[in-house]
Amino acid sequence: MPHPHLDAAGHPRPQLIRDPDWRDLGGPWQFAHDDEDRGRADRWMDPANSAPFTGTVTVPYPPESAASGVADTAFHPVLWYRRTIDVSRPTAGRRLLLHFGAVDHRAEVWLGGRLVGRHEGGHTGFTCDLTDAIDRDGEQTVVVRAEDQPLDAAQPRGKQDWRRDPHVIWYHRTSGIWQPVWLEEVPAEHIALLHWTPEVAHARVRCRLRLGHWPQRPLTVTVRLTRGERVLAEQRTLIEGQETEFDVAVPALRHGQDLDELLWSPERPQLIDAVVELRDAAEDTPVDRATSYLGLRDIGWDDGVFLLNHKPYFLRFALQQGYWPASHLSASAEELRRDVELAKEIGLNGLRIHQKVEDPRFLYWADRLGLLLWEEMPSAYAFGAQTVERVVAEWTEAISRDLSHPSIVAWVPINESWSVPNPALVPAQRHFMDALYHLSKALDPSRPAVSNDGWEISAADIWGVHDYTQHGDVLRRRYGHASLRQGELAEQWPGAKRLTLDGVRHQGQPVVLSEFGGATFEPAEGAEWFGYDTVATKEEFAERLADLVTAAVDSGLAGYCYTQFTDTEQEINGLLTPDRQPKIPLAELREILTRTRT
After folding, report:
1. Scanning 170, 369, 445, 495, which has the fewest C-beta atoms within 10 Å of its C-beta?
2. Is the pLDDT of residue 22 over 90?
3. What is the chain's mean pLDDT, rounded?
4. β-pair type (204-211, 299-302)
5. d(CA 377, CA 584)
6. Dihedral angle at the C-alpha atoms of 552, 554, 555, 561, nearest 10 degrees?
7. 309 neighbors 265 (Cβ within 8 angstroms)
8. Pairing label, strands 559-563, 511-517
9. Coil, strand or helix at 51
C-alpha cells in the first residue's frame, strides 16, 4: 500500500483524503460577463436558461488570464459560470459535496436552479452540499455567480490592481474561480476538518477534528501515525460533539538522541503518515476513513534567534508573489511543484508568500520537499469597519485551512501598514493590527505571528524590517552590531516609516530583513517600474546581489528575504525570469544565496 502522503500529490486538499477518489471539474465551462448585473433578475441560474452563456472559460484559470481562453483584463465586476455534470443521487447515509478551492471575491452556487451555497472571501475555499438539490440521476446544471468589484478598496485584494492597467507593483486581476473545483461523495457523518499541531518537547501531537454536522450517535475516532513501516502511535477517543480535540502520545519523541530520525526540517523533510477512522461507538462499525500527513517539528524564538526544533536556524528567503504570466494567481500542480524545487535549487530554505493565500497543492510540495513558508493575508487598502469584518473572517479561514502544514512557520496578517496607513495616529488602526496578531495566536499558538511586517512594528514575535538600500556597507552599519539581537536598532527610520511604534519593547524577538534588494536587471523598454535600482549587466547584478546578501549574513540578523523570487509583470527585479529561468547561472546564484558568515 503506498504511503498516504505520496497519494496526496495533485489532490486539491492534500491533508484530508478519502476513498473513493475525488472528481476534478476543471476544464471548459460556459461563461458570461454580466456588466449590468442582470443575471439574477433574468434567472441565469435556471437550467433551461443557457442563452446568456455565449463564451467558454477554462477552469480554474481566471478570465483575465490567457490560460483561461478569455484573456479579457477590462473591468467586469460580475461573472457567471455554467457546467453540466452527470451525477447520481447518493445512497442513504451518503452526501455529495461540491468543493471550491477559491473564488474571488463573492460567490453564489446553484444546482438545478436551487441555491446550494454562498461564500465571501476570494482567497479561501468553501463547500456546497448538493445532496438535497439532486432530484434525479443524470445530468445536472451547476451555475456559479462571482462578484469581484475592482474599485472596492475595502476588499482584500493583495497585489491585484484597482486600476484598469497594472501600475508600479500591482498586477492584473484574478477574478472568479481560480483554484480547483471538485466533487466528493462522503458519509453523512464525516470528517470535515482535521488539524495537527506537533509538540515535540512534550512527545505528543495535538489533533483537532470537526465533523460535517453534529453527530446523531456516539462515535469513536482512531488515529494511527506511522513512519514507513514503523508505528509511532495509535489512539482511540470518544466523540460526543461536532468538534473534539485530543493529544496523541508519540513515545518515540522521548528518545532525545534519536530525534533526527523523525523531525521535519528543510534539510530532512520527513513526513508522518496518518490514518483517521470514525466508527460507531456502540456497534464498532466503520463510519468514515481519511488519510493525512503531518510533520514533527517545533518553531520558536529566543534571544534574537529564530529556532527550528529548538536550534538556531538562519532564514534564507525570497519574496514570492505566486504569479504566472499566462495564469496570474492560478497555476497547475506541476508549476506549483516546480517553484518549490527551484527555490531549493538556488539555495533558499524558505519563501515569504506575499499578499496571497497559496494553493494547498503548493503547501504540500513545500511540506514534502522541505521549504519554510511565511503565510500572508492579502491586504485591503482602505481602513474601516467593512475591512475589519472581511479581513478577520477570511484570515480566520486561511489559518484554519493551513495550520497543519509543517512548512508554514509564521503568520503575517498585514504588510507595510497596508489598510492601516496611520497606526501611530489612529488608535483604531493599531487596535486592528494588534487584534489580528492576537487572533492569529488564539487560532494557532504554536507559530510566531507578525501583526505588521516591514515597519511600524507593534505586536509581533518576529521584527520584520524592509530596507531597500543598495549598499552592503549600509546594511552592515544598520544591522551589523551585536546589540541588534537585543532589539536595539541603529536607525529608527531607514525608510519613510518608523520601525517600531510607541510602547513596543523587545522581548527576544528575532530581527529579520524581510524585504531587501530589489534591483532590476534588463528592464523592458518603456517600462513604468524599474525596481529599487537598475543594473546593466549580469556581472553587475551578481555583484550587487553578493554584496547585499553577504552583508545580511554577516549582520546580527536572524535571516533575510530577498525581493523577489521571480519577475512579476512590470516588477522585473526577480532572481528568476517570469518563466522561471535564473538571471545568472544557477550555480553562481546558489553560491551567493548559501553564503555563511565570514
Report:
1. 445
2. no
3. 94
4. unpaired
5. 32
6. 20
7. yes
8. parallel
9. coil
